Predict the 3D structure of the following.
Amino acid sequence: MTKFEKPTSLTRRSVLLGSGALVVSIGAGVTLETVLSIGEAFAQGTKPPLTPDQLSSYIAVNADGRVAAYFGKMDMGHGLHVAIAQIVAEELDVPFKAVKVFMADTATSVNQGGASGSTGIQLGGKQLRVAAAEARRVLVEMAAGALSVPADKLTVNDGVVSATDDKTKSISYAQLIGGQYFNVQLDWNKQYGNALYAPGKAQPKKPSEHKVVGQPIKREDIAPKVFCQEDFVTDVKVPGMMHGRMIRPAVAGSVPVKVDESSIKDIPGARVVWKNGFLGVVADKEWDAIQATEKLKVEWSAQEPPFPAQASLHDHIRKAPVRKRMVEVQNGDVDAAFKSAARIIEAEYEWPFQSHASMGPACSLVEIKDGKATCWSGTQKSHFVQEGIATLLQMPLESVHVIFKSGPGSYGRNDADDCAMDAAMLAQSVGRPVRLQYMRDQGTGWDPKGPASVHSAKCGLNAAGEVIAYEFTSKAFSRVDVDTNGGKPYDTLTGQTLGVALKSGDGFGVPAESYAVANKRMAWETIPPLLDRASPLRSSHLRDPVGPQIHFASESFIDEVASAVNADPIEFRLRYVKDPRDIAVIKAAAEKAKWETRASPRHDQTGPKVSGRGIAYAQRNGTRVAVIAEVDVDRSTGKIAARKFTVAHDCGQIINPDGLVKCVEGNIVQGVSRALWEEVTFDRNTVTSVDWITYPILDITETPGQVDVVLLNYPDIAPSGAGEPSIRPVAAAIANAIFDATGVRIRRVPFSPERVKAAFS
Amino acid sequence: MNQPFKLSVNGQSHTVEADPDMPLLYALRNDLGLNNPHFGCGLAQCGACTVHVDGQPTRSCVTPMSAVGKSEVTTLAGLGTPEKPHPLQTAYVEEQVLQCGYCINGWLMTAAAFLRDNKKPTEAQIKEALSGLKCRCGTHISILKAVKRAAEMMG
């Protein structure tokens, strides 16, 4: 099956052998005819090893001139692949439509860290940019040989290299290398994951030369989903597949001590998989597997209720021993400055546990055959899951293949990695492929949680009302009680239920801003988890890990200080913010929202229904965002309507403005949901928020009616992330708007009607 | 006890052996290979499994096989095709609504029935009609734009 006529291939062969062989990988025993006979697929032949120092690990040119970009990260719904294709097309000088991005398949991509920290473009795109630039350099060099024209006298247009002053002399990328892999060494920094970087000799283009980067190109993957032509991970099936379901204890920490397999003997094909605390069932039919979980008689070990009463969660955090303290910012003599202060302002803020609550519970399919395991997963970290499964099943890493397929949402370290590992365990145990999907209560109840926290802020003012001392401390559960991926069994429910040795990590963070205060200290403290293993309240990364909670506190507090000195919240911030790009986003948001300069709160409203406006701003790994919220508050019911947002967003160079606006809108809406509604509930035994009734999120009637996004584009500044930064200031902007409207300060998320109403009384 | 059920789905007849209590969703997904309705909650709380049963938006995750009877079932795949799209499908593509896309059966199937029965709806009516659906990615702003666009197309 080839799209090429024989004469073309002969021409290409002569070109290859005549000029390009040094940089082309022609493996022994693979003829060009063999390569062409597989025509439909992307580049064929013997491929150099899939290592980060090979150009072929990122870019290949197909026989027909199409370009494959192999990407070790994946799109989680923002259309990242479109931006990556734009970057690759730009550097290679090929049409955008000629580029196809293959995401996060461990067989075709190296470990670039998966979806992580909004680095898809910032770090992943950076690597694809230098790889594509190097591919172009190599191809032009090959063309120089083939055309006998010096490389600096060649231009490239739509994948065709031509002599600048004689367009009759030309040769296409397809003719130069199509169907063969590059064999070009890159200068790899020996890092894996997000930090991986492997440039070639080529310099990427100057931003002023960009034609494809910066364009609002649409996603091509919407239509296939809308017309049901594309599978999600939940849709993958293989012959002989069984359906699995897991069983979790009613009291967290409890393990099965007796399992009565005869209780499900009437269910055809149903089998139990039980090892220590790991308990699952499989059956040929999905409904039978579900029935089996309900009918299986299990006796559980006695377990002391592991959790405190929910009402005392934040007191528990305050009193808990500090496992690790980290001072990340320390300027001047903070303690002396507080002693000399004319006035001290203090406040404390609380954030609950929150759930990823993905649209569907996680699903994974694992097939083990001929000593090799294949896993289909919606994970954010396929290369790490590959490591986790290899360790769990005691197989060589190269015998495990993880294929990323879009899952039911993600938003961080949700339940996907646990599910992949559980599925691997089930598949190995029963000797058949197993498709495991969790049930809703397991998705919401047993995903790793965004950590609950208490934040203390303290500010010292001199007699003139200037800030001379500032201290901010977070005390919280760790953001890496379980790590951000399933690379280690002890970070997964699978390993924890099987009884592996634990290794709970410590991590949190401090506010990311540029307030210049001479005496300033910012620190975090982490406390041990409530239950050391297989806990539904284990904590990990939830979208913008710990950003919303920290900046809810820090940006609410700045507002409190502004109010205390009777200053306008923006004017007060601008007294201290020193970074020019920070100043620019704050001013851009203020201008777009037609911000009226005055102190908060308003004093001109009477009656139950009042309105207010509030601002918050934050940095995040190079990105800056300012958010202005306009809210209506019904004082009689406590109901908040966050009706309008103005967002100014600076992530350096913009790759695709349309994709960026959609990404920001989603951040704002999810941010509103988390600020107004979301709180994991639990009793002494376990998590009790297990579905959409007990873990409510916002619905369309509560969605902001207007989100104005101002994009600040800095083409000469390397792009930073956008997947998470704009969710960061949302809760504080709303809290500040509630204060503006009512004069009441809400220091606890979520701003549920009951809590807001209680604050008024 | 399993028993045979005759199902009419997207205009085609099928026979499925199933437990009468089994939700329709599993028959559609596993027996008929129609992947479009998704399992989101199994509790009729999110809408990801929505199909039309005799034209009415129905949560297939809680609809037992025994309750389907001779009703005509329509899934998202039966709503329209790339060649002959439903206005909502066209609008979804034009407005670039999706992020993860897992929720779309609920929004499209519910909105399709609503727009069929309500010409020129107000924004408040659209929101009310769609208030029982979930989207975790927060694409609601684009969803509303797409439904309004489709409403205009449907006159």
Q: What stands out?
A: The two ends of chain A are 76 Å apart (CA to CA). The CA atoms of residues 315 and 454 of chain A lie 9 Å apart.
